[in-house]
């Protein structure tokens, strides 16, 4: 609990929903850079998109590149991870 004599200033609380989204990739990349990312990540974009739609889609993908794998997982490694046996001891 705070007493009035302890308060120096009062500011209105703003939730994160009130703030504009800031992304590390907030700069507006060139179309060439976006095309490079699409090729690098091997995205198969619809051929029927307009130029504006294609750029908008590439921009969304560009901003979310950290969520995509560049190469598929190796099957053998994936299987070995799934086959690990863990034993749990009481109290740990």
Structure, described:
By secondary structure, the protein is mostly helical.
Q: How is the topology of this model organized?
A:
Elements: H1 31-40, H2 51-63, H3 75-82
Helix pairs in contact: 1-2
Largest sheet, strands/sense/barrel: none
Backbone structural class? mainly alpha
Q: H/E series, N to C?
A: HHH
Question: How many β-strand stretches?
Answer: 0
Helix proportion range: 25-40%
Strand content: under 5%
Number of helices: 3
Arithmetic mean pLDDT: 75
Q: Which key terms come to mind for this protein?
A:
single chain; 3 helices; 92 residues; mainly alpha; flat
Short description:
The chain has helices at residues 31-40, 51-63, 75-82. The protein has 92 residues and is mainly α.
């Amino acid at each position: 609990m705070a007493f009035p004599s302890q308060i120096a200033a009062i500011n209105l609380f703003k939730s994160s929903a009130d703030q504009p989204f800031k992304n590390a990739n907030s700069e507006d990349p060139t179309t060439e850079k976006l095309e490079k990312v699409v090729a690098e990540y091997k995205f198969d974009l619809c051929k029927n998109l307009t130029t504006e739609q294609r750029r908008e889609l590439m921009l969304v993908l560009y901003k979310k590149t950290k969520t995509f794998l560049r190469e598929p997982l190796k099957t053998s490694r994936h299987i070995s991870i799934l086959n690990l046996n863990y034993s749990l001891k009481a109290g740990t």
